[in-house]
Amino acid sequence: MNKFYGTGVAMVTPFDNNGQVDYPALKNLIDHLIGGGVEYLVSLGTTGESATLSKEEKKKIWAYTAEVNNGRVGLVAGIASNNTADVLEQIKAFDNAGYDAILSASPHYNKPNQQGIYYHYKAIAEASPLPILLYNVPSRTGSNVSAETTVRLAHDFKNIIGTKEASGNFDQLNQIMRDKPAGFMMISGDDPITFPMIAMGAVGVISVVGNALPRQFSDMVRLCLKGDFAGAQQAHYNLIEFTRLMFADGSPGGVKTALKQLGICGDTLRMPLFPVNDDIAAKIVAETKRIVG
Predict the structure, then answer these.
(1) Which GO biological process entries does UniProt record here (predicted)?
(2) How many helices (H) and strands (E) in the chain?
């Protein structure tokens, strides 16, 4: 699955001033990302504000994204829920034409134990016609997919091909890398630590920052993957402040501010999300100008 080596971008969903999906802006974003050299796109992950979208909106966005991409880069759909039956229903209804995999976050809010997480993903693996990428993001879900559970799933289901890891727990990451089967991919789900994660064996990132800076971020990732860590280190340092600002007052509010500055799309969010405060916005604009010009 080399198409998932490198930089994937968890795309924002552009909205117009009335809060409706802005499809021309979505096309701008897709073309911006592909032109910036990213390896694949992720449609309707957390960064895409999927929790605020109706089933019909999701269906239309997925179809439109596949149409605009037109096979130019890899394409992943984010499909998740804290109700296993709902995930299975979504997968059954999903038109996977043009898509290469499904990214599914572990169940949020209801905090299942490790057996519950294992059998949740078991059901998804058995139902999905596409390969599955696990997504562990304890800061959002309220529970952790342990290294043992990740490795167990990786060994038991050949169509579970990797994990987007955003735990930030390097002891856990070490255990996954040591015990996973050959070919199972660990993908960074946390922009600030992508550099060290690749150094320990991750194959790339699914990025928020890459929405605004696809060229700069994907160049850094490719340098890492080639083993040019000296070159990658300088690129990493150059992006530290921008990356910090992306999450300083909520995501994807930060990256939408940068995208508005770049003329890619507006910065409208759907409630309960709200734009970043004026101080952070001014700093984001300044950093965007510094990096992009």
Answers:
(1) diaminopimelate biosynthetic process; lysine biosynthetic process via diaminopimelate
(2) 12, 8
Which residue of the set 58, 164, 256, 283 is catalytic? 164
Look at residue 108 and tell me if it is in a domain: yes
| DSSP labels, 233-292 | HHHHHHHHHHHHHHTTT-TTHHHHHHHHHHTSS-----TT--PPPHHHHHHHHHHHHHHH
- How many CA atoms lie less than 13 Å away from 76 in the CB half-sphere? 32
Q: Binding residue per annotation — 61? A: no
Q: Does the residue 232 lie in any domain?
A: no
CA angle (124 as vertex; 120, 125 as ends), nearest 5: 115
Would you say 47 is a known binding-site residue?
yes
Please tell me the pTM assigned to this model: 0.95
- For 44, 72, 218, the CA distances from 34, given in Å and listed in that order, are 17, 8, 11
Number of structural domains the chain divides into:
1
CATH number, domain of 48, equals 3.20.20.70
Tracing tokens 């910036």 back to the chain, one arrives at 36
The predicted structure's pLDDT at residue 1: 56
* Residue 69 belongs to a domain: yes
Residue 78 domain-assigned? yes
Exactly one of 5, 99, 121, 135 is catalytic; name it: 135
Confidence of residue 199 (pLDDT cuts 50, 70, 90): very high
Residues contacting 80, CB < 8 A, separation 6+ = 50, 87, 103, 104, 105, 106, 107, 108, 135
Which residue segment(s) compose the domain that 200 sits in? Answer: 2-227
